[in-house]
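R.M. (postdoc): so does anyone remember the format we settled on? I'll just put the structure tokens first.
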């Protein structure tokens, strides 16, 4: 069984926006899937716009879990599923390779 870890701790911020300071607008995400001794990673970025009416969370109060939720919401369920499926496929290829590199001895 694959365990997925979403790391969304690296963000780009606007120092000032809509009367707030250090407003996150872009997330650099890293998703790692681990299945026993096998692992694979996908990386990317996602814009997370500040929405009118949403409660503003000060930068110092942000956690990875909060930003992961924002990121997944902005990416959308279908794309999140595709990212995790890609990782699962990479892990399956490691478990059951269709090609390997070997060196011929002398």
């Amino acid at each position: 069984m694959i365990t997925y870890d979403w790391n969304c701790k690296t963000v780009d911020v606007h120092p000032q926006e809509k009367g707030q300071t250090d407003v996150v607008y872009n997330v650099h995400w890293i998703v790692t899937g681990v299945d026993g001794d096998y692992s694979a990673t996908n990386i990317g970025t996602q814009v997370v716009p500040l929405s009118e009416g949403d409660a503003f969370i000060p930068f110092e109060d942000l956690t990875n879990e909060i930003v992961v939720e924002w990121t997944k919401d902005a990416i959308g369920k279908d794309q999140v599923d595709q990212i995790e499926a890609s990782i699962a496929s990479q892990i399956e290829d490691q478990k059951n390779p269709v090609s390997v590199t070997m060196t011929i001895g002398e």
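R.M.: ...and that's the designed sequence above, right after the tokens. Also worth knowing: The mean pLDDT is 95. The first helix runs from residue 64 to 75.
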